Amino acid sequence: MTHPFLDLAPLSAEHFASIEDRVARLMDTSQDVVIMQGEALLPLEGAIRGTAAPGTVALNVITGPYGQTFGDWLRDCGATVHDLAVPFHTAVTAEQVRAALAEHPEIDFVSLVHAEAATGNTNPVAEIGAVVREHGALFYLDAVASIAAEPVLPDAWGVDLCVIGAQKAMGGPAGVSAVSVSARAWERMTANEQAPRHSYLSLLDWKQRWIDGGRKALLHAPAQLEMLALEACVERIESEGLDALMARHASAAAATRAGTLALGGGLEPYVHEARDAAPVATTLRAPAGTDARELVAKALAVDPVLPLVAGGGALAQEMIRVNHYGPQATRGVVQSSLAALGGALAEAGIAVDLEGARKAVAAAWQ
Ligand SMILES: *Cc1c(COP(=O)(O)O)cnc(C)c1O
């Protein structure tokens, strides 16, 4: 008997390339797109180690925990790093980036996270991209949490290295990921003696042995199940329509925000301004005197499938994340999430308006 997962025919190079092309269409890019055989941290790290070296001067924008990690990798590569950190309840502005570049004109690399699922904010990449391009620096973007939740347009925005993963808004597998690479970024990597070569982290290996050879032979046996899952996930997005999928995420974020405000009880959107809030996930601030972990545990005891989680690290006590992404970006999930959180608050003796929240969600869902 053949097993549906175990007894598959090998994934051909042609098939692999066709999946890359479909991912490239999703990003509306004509740059090279490399599908990396690991979670998104693989291309995120590979792209930094490929381009940064002693002599690199980087502006590292920190709007959440990932920005901090990128700064550590850059310093590890010997780069001089100027951190531009903004409070996690807001977004960075193009003006702040412009000012940082003016202060340190030698900056030749800018790293930015588009949307942060961990903090719930999203940054104005189109405007920032224009500033970075004018300055001439290489532009590195983590779009893992934004792809399929809001527009991600590396070509239009002048992004040189744009990393995506399928496990958030795309509703796909976590074990493979992708990065689009501009001609400028390839040049920087080729000239970088320190760039990983003959390494799992190497993008240059994929350029030299896969892309430059016309994508005829794979470097090693691919993660076949994950590649097939990625293909199925892109197929599902194509049949729903990328615009419809992004609209679903925008509605989920707007409805969660409106419902939270109507619920009351001291529960508040963590990101102050709606325009800075990411469509992929909505973060909430637990009412003073409560513990986010306890509220989430109580809500999940009522409905264990809800996409609720307490914030990570230092935010664990105060932040609740509503991960309304992928198949969870539905009105029903938003309604149930707020009802469960409202129930947990009521149980703690806090007055909430459950019916008001329900109406606000319905009204805000476009
Ligand atoms: C989710 C996410 C990633 C991928 O990390 P995981 O925690 O492994 O899912 C990378 N960057 C950002 C901004 C993310 O939100």
Give a verbal description of the structure.
The chain has 366 residues and is of the alpha/beta class. It has two domains: 13-239, Type I PLP-dependent aspartate aminotransferase-like (Major domain) (Aspartate Aminotransferase, domain 2), CATH 3.40.640.10; 242-364, Aspartate Aminotransferase, domain 1, CATH 3.90.1150.10. It contains 13 helices and 13 strands. It has helices spanning 13-26, 41-51, 65-76, 94-103, 125-135, 154-157, 183-191, 203-211, 224-240, 242-263, 292-302, 331-347, 354-364; strands at 32-36, 57-62, 80-85, 109-113, 115-116, 121-122, 138-142, 161-165, 177-181, 268-269, 282-285, 308-310, 319-322. The chain has a seven-stranded mixed sheet with strand order 1-9-8-7-4-2-3, sandwiched between helices. Strands 10-11-13-12 form a four-stranded antiparallel sheet, with helices on one face. A two-stranded antiparallel ribbon has the order 5-6. The mean pLDDT is 97. The structure holds pyridoxal-5'-phosphate (PLP). Pyridoxal-5'-phosphate (PLP) binds next to loops. InterPro entries: Aminotrans_V_dom, PyrdxlP-dep_Trfase, PyrdxlP-dep_Trfase_major, PyrdxlP-dep_Trfase_small, SP_NH2Trfase/AEP_transaminase. Keywords: Aminotransferase, Pyridoxal phosphate, Transferase.
